[in-house]
Amino acid sequence: MTARAASRPVGTVTRGTTNPNRLRRMDRWIAATHGAELRGSADPVAVDLGYGAAPWTAVELLARLRTVAPRTRVVGVEIDPARVAAARPYEREGLSFRHGGFEVPVEGGPTLIRAANVLRQYDEEQVAAVWQRLCARLAPAGPGSSGGLLVEGTCDEIGRRHVWVALGPEGPRTVTFATRLGSLDRPSDLAERLPKALIHRNVPGEPVHTFLRDFDHAWAAAAPYASYGARQRWIRTVRDLAADWPVTDAISRWRQGEVTVSWQALAPGV
Fold first, then answer.
1. Cα 199 to Cα 14: distance, rounded to the nearest angstrom
2. Which end of the chain offers a freer environment for a tag, N or C, measured as fewer CB atoms within 10 Å?
3. Rg for the chain (alpha carbons), in Å?
């Protein structure tokens, strides 16, 4: 056991709620946007941090990432030792489970850390320190590499609605909103799934509140496109939204019911 693994885990036990296929939207996005970084890494390690009471999300992450980066290894990390013991029978080539927390008990710098529905129980004031700790554990940037990626966010119980922040070694980069379009009444429905850093900032005067207001207005203006289906309405909505907000992705992602915006545009005010 390494010295890092032997240290006392940092963090607290979560509720552990999990379901198969819950994180498919996040996984799809990671594979599409971070696949090249995983392929280019000499040792592509992805950490499923706080996978919960059952190991389904770690098992699925391995399968999804290996479609774009076949050498990827996944390490599931849980602070509850009983959950680690329960997950051990699912270990296989490329998949292992370890006891730990925000210290991330793996050797070297991971190419990916995914922390889904982990910070929900923490206070907003604790988020920055957790982000800083996790970003410091990522593989550093270098020639031809933007470094490892931390993806931290929240979704509903069956993964229909999800919002996450992507961070590199330097800090937060983007915010992604993802949804099953057929279940969406208006974009601001996603507000209940904002990550901890933003959810309490959805009030007048804060950038994320203004963004969601403009998103709803663009959705309403795109109502005529609903006759062509929810996907076409979403695409038109995001096109209009991009006139005033720094949307960083393209139509290939919008078709998936996603939109990604620069973190700086939505970052909480002082």
1. 18
2. C
3. 18
